[in-house]
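Below sits the subject:

***
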Amino acid sequence: MIILDNPGLREDKDGNAFVCGTRQTLQSAAHQVQLLPEDLYVTYILKRKPTRKYEKEHTRSICVHHLEAQLSKQEPSALFCLVMFPFKQCLNMKLQL
């Protein structure tokens, strides 16, 4: 299971599709070790892309309960947090991995 902070933008202001640096790195690393997209379970702390400025800590504290439910349901054998908030939050969770 790979945890990212939020789904982020999928296109620029002109409507052209792009992949952000974090997702480019993830795709490149997966390709290098011959993992297919269906081999990975990617999820996010926030369940939709932010559309305006928001109180990050408050919003994340609400959304993290959904992540905990996903972890319980998916029972991943490995957990990779690709941004600082999920990593810090995961350290505080009582995971049974």
In short: The longest strand covers residues 2-4. Residues 2-8+36-92 form one domain. The radius of gyration is 14 Å. The chain has a mean pLDDT of 77.
